[in-house]
UniProtKB/TrEMBL annotation:
InterPro entries: AAA+_ATPase, ABC_transporter-like_ATP-bd, P-loop_NTPase
GO MF term set: ATP binding; ATP hydrolysis activity
Phylogenetic placement of the source organism: Bacteria, Bacillati, Actinomycetota, Actinomycetes, Micrococcales
Domain ABC transporter span(s) in chain numbering: 5-245
Keyword ATP-binding recorded: yes
Pfam families (UniProt xref): ABC_tran
Organism for this UniProt entry: Pseudoclavibacter caeni
The keyword Flavoprotein is assigned to this record: no
Family matches, as PROSITE patterns: ABC_TRANSPORTER_2 (PS50893)
Protein's name according to its UniProt entry: ABC transporter ATP-binding protein
């Protein structure tokens, strides 16, 4: 077991506000985390720190054994997979799905004059197969549905064989079928041999994939609770998080929540 993320007393201040407030959190390589919390809780800010995009105002951040502030982030970032809708804007809409995934091997978006190794092309096809994108290989990224784009973002993030994979709301805006398809893939990936540590931000307990092991609850920039998922995603804890009486249930590794307002 290796610790891949280690945040100690991390505070991020912007415009006089604490977006993160004294956050301490450790992720080991065999753990799969879900991060849950209301709008504005600081979840995306936390992922931005964990992906070496943002430095803390106070506290220490070690990612893959390297201390932020001491390491060259341009060497560190290729070791971190980060799939987020915010990255969509960087992908040229005319780029083919195959090229969107393939260019990840070179840390660029937009194919230009790179010469690709056969090995990389073969790996890109494997990624398309694993994330059920093979039939879309030649389609322009800009022509895809939201569900297809989400899978392309993840395939791209996984292409460079990251040591930690961060997912920001991977199932947001998906219809029921697309959501369930992606949750199935993520649940399988969570236990796939050689899969990296996973951290997935979500708004809904229904969107937690199977086989996730840990949960972190956030509110107002602070960690409210963290630990093994079956001790955190429970009625009492979520009711406190959302200031609402909630009934949380787990069936076959999937969760549901509803207000208990009868
Ligand atoms: N650069 C910034 N300057 C000032 N405030 C910011 C900045 N970036 C984010 N915030 C604020 O910090 C808070 C946390 O934002 P963040 O995006 O991390 O929350 P979140 O939990 O991901 O929210 P959501 O679920 O709505 O996506 C929000 O109130 C947001 O408005």
């Amino acid at each position: 077991m290796t610790t891949v993320l280690d945040l100690q007393h991390v505070t991020v201040q912007r415009a006089g506000r604490d977006l993160l407030d004294d956050v301490s959190w450790q992720v080991d390589d065999d753990q799969r985390w879900v991060v849950l919390g209301p709008n504005g809780a600081g979840k995306t800010t936390l992922l931005n720190v964990a992906s070496a995009q943002l430095h803390p105002t106070r506290g220490t951040v070690d990612i893959l054994g390297e201390r932020l502030g001491r390491v060259d982030v341009f060497e560190l970032r290729p070791r971190i997979g980060f799939a987020s809708s915010a990255n969509n804007a960087r992908i040229p809409p005319t780029e083919t799905v195959l090229d969107v995934v393939l260019t990840a091997a070179y840390g660029v978006t937009g194919r230009w004059r790179e010469a690709y190794e056969d090995e990389d092309v073969a790996r890109a096809h494997t990624m398309l197969h694993d994330w059920r994108l093979e039939s879309l290989a030649d389609r322009a990224f800009g022509s895809l549905s939201d569900g297809e784009r989400k899978r392309v973002q993840i395939a791209r993030a996984v292409m460079s064989d990251p040591e930690i994979l961060l997912l920001d709301e991977p199932t947001a805006n998906l219809d029921l079928g697309a959501r369930e398809e992606l949750l199935q893939l993520l649940g399988e990936y969570a236990v796939a041999p050689g899969a990296p540590a996973l951290v997935s931000v979500t708004h809904h307990v229904e969107e937690i994939p199977r086989n996730f092991t840990h949960a972190l609850l956030m509110k107002d920039g602070r960690v409210i609770r963290q630990g093994p998922i079956n001790q955190v995603i429970i009625s009492e804890r979520l009711s406190r998080l959302y200031d609402l009486p909630l009934v949380v249930a787990e069936t076959d590794g999937r969760y549901t929540a509803r207000a208990d307002l009868v």
